[in-house]
Each structure stands twice: as structure tokens, then as C-alpha cells.
């Protein structure tokens, strides 16, 4: 664990440099051979060649989308784990991704929605609805909100929304063709337009998460202690929930439901810098972007010339880690 603030700052700088290296690797690596010089020439001397078109229309948007989605999911998971005091909390496990996906598929199947902006708002609506339902179910009973109850509520809602989504796709072949690969979680074939459409919400989510880091530290001491120190805990929780909806909703709108990043990365961040959310949140963003970029690069080579959806790759990485955390006990 890095204890000094100087060491943590140096770690952030090193992490950012590694992230830049992976973005470069994502642009040059793949089925079509691309060199660094080709990338430079595509900006300075664009000639309309196949390689230059692939760089501009496919590789660069894909790399930036993977970085943005990975960072967003990791930060959303970090905020959720802090708000619920639950080490298993994440947008995928708590049904937020599944709810956002359900609303998108609902819009495609019954309302003929095709625009990027409509996808974004449907994903936000689904993320918000599932968050509210899970919170209400997890708060029922004499003991109120507990880690085990909200985990079970989230798992139940994730299963429900996933079942409803699959049922709609079974009845609507056109919608199935449109969203089957998207539902597996993928950044392949995404255009820069869809990233630009959700970028304002992502940036608001990132900045807001950094701002509430200090308040998250107080909240994790316990709600009674936080109230005793004068914190308006309901305001912090509400802001945290809005951040999660913005980040998870944007991510699902762009790349579909990609799981496990929101579970794995916050634990790695806390292992590196401790429990101070002023550092955990930026570290989670960098590490989340790094993990998804690495997974996406690996997905290109696993069964080349075909590709594995990146959501499958993150599942391979995340499932063993999830089992490890679950075995330690969510009440630890």
C-alpha cells in the first residue's frame, strides 16, 4: 500500500502514462496491420487508404470508448461500495446494467427507437428505475438497509430484468439482430458519435465523484458518526446515486452491459492507496480504463480473425475475483 501523498500522486502519473500506452496499443494492434507512422500520417497526410479510414473510424473511437466506459464503470462501482458498505456492490450485480439494458431493448422492440440520444435516455431511465427498486427492496424489514439484503435484492432484479429482456428478444427477431452483440458487452463497431452523445454525462459523473470523495470518507465511518459530524447523509447518498446512474447509464448506452469491472477495480484501488476515497476514486478511474483496454485488446486475438465480446473477457477476469471476495464474506 502506498502511504504518502507524493507516492500516490506519482502512482497516478505512472498509471496515466500506462493508460496512454494502452490507448496507443489499441489503435495499432488488431487484424489490420497499423504502424505508429500510419497513425501520424492519418492526421497529417490523410489519403483515404483503408488503413487511414480504419484508424479514424474504428480504432481511435474504440480505444477512447473502452477507456471512458472502463473508467465510468469502475468509479460507479467504487461509489456504490462506499454508499452501501458492501464489497460486492457494482452496477452489474445490483441490476443497474440489466435495468438499463431492459429499457433500451424495450424501446427498440415496441417503440422502434434507433437514435443514439434515445438510447442514452432509455439507459438512464432504466438505471434509475432499477436503482430505486433495489434500494426500496433492500431497505424493507426491521433492520433496514443491510449489505446482504441489498445484494440479494440487486441479484433478484438483475435476474428479472435479464429474463424480461431475453423474452422480448425471443418475440422480436428484428430487435434480436440489432442488440444481440451489444447485450454481450462490446466496444467493437461503436462510432465516435455515440461517445460524444454521452460524454457530457460521463464528465459530470467523473467530476462529481471526485468532489464527493471527502464526504464519502465521512460516510464510511457509519451513518450515525457522519450525522454527528454534521454531514447531511441523505444529500451525499442522493448525489452518489445520481453519479452511479449517470456513469452506469452512459456506459450501457455506449457498450452494453459489461460486468465485473465495478467489482474488481475498487478493491485493487483500495489495496494500492488505502480507504481514502479522495485517492480511491481517481485510481479506480485509471485502473478501470486500463483493464477494459487490456481486455479489448485481448479479445481481438483470442479467436482471430473473429472477436470475442469484451464483456466475455471481463467475465473471465472478474469471476475468480468475485468468488474470492464472496468467500471472504460481504459482512467483513
UniProtKB/TrEMBL annotation:
<keyword id="KW-0472">Membrane</keyword>
<feature type="transmembrane region" description="Helical">
    <location>
        <begin position="234"/>
        <end position="265"/>
    </location>
</feature>
<dbReference type="Pfam" id="PF01032">
    <property type="entry name" value="FecCD"/>
</dbReference>
<keyword id="KW-1003">Cell membrane</keyword>
<feature type="transmembrane region" description="Helical">
    <location>
        <begin position="277"/>
        <end position="295"/>
    </location>
</feature>
<feature type="transmembrane region" description="Helical">
    <location>
        <begin position="307"/>
        <end position="326"/>
    </location>
</feature>
<keyword id="KW-1133">Transmembrane helix</keyword>
<keyword id="KW-0813">Transport</keyword>
<comment type="similarity">
    <text>Belongs to the binding-protein-dependent transport system permease family. FecCD subfamily.</text>
</comment>
<feature type="transmembrane region" description="Helical">
    <location>
        <begin position="9"/>
        <end position="31"/>
    </location>
</feature>
<feature type="transmembrane region" description="Helical">
    <location>
        <begin position="60"/>
        <end position="80"/>
    </location>
</feature>
<keyword id="KW-0812">Transmembrane</keyword>
<feature type="transmembrane region" description="Helical">
    <location>
        <begin position="92"/>
        <end position="113"/>
    </location>
</feature>
<feature type="transmembrane region" description="Helical">
    <location>
        <begin position="119"/>
        <end position="138"/>
    </location>
</feature>
<protein>
    <submittedName>
        <fullName>FecCD family ABC transporter permease</fullName>
    </submittedName>
</protein>
<feature type="transmembrane region" description="Helical">
    <location>
        <begin position="191"/>
        <end position="213"/>
    </location>
</feature>
<dbReference type="InterPro" id="IPR000522">
    <property type="entry name" value="ABC_transptr_permease_BtuC"/>
</dbReference>
<dbReference type="InterPro" id="IPR037294">
    <property type="entry name" value="ABC_BtuC-like"/>
</dbReference>
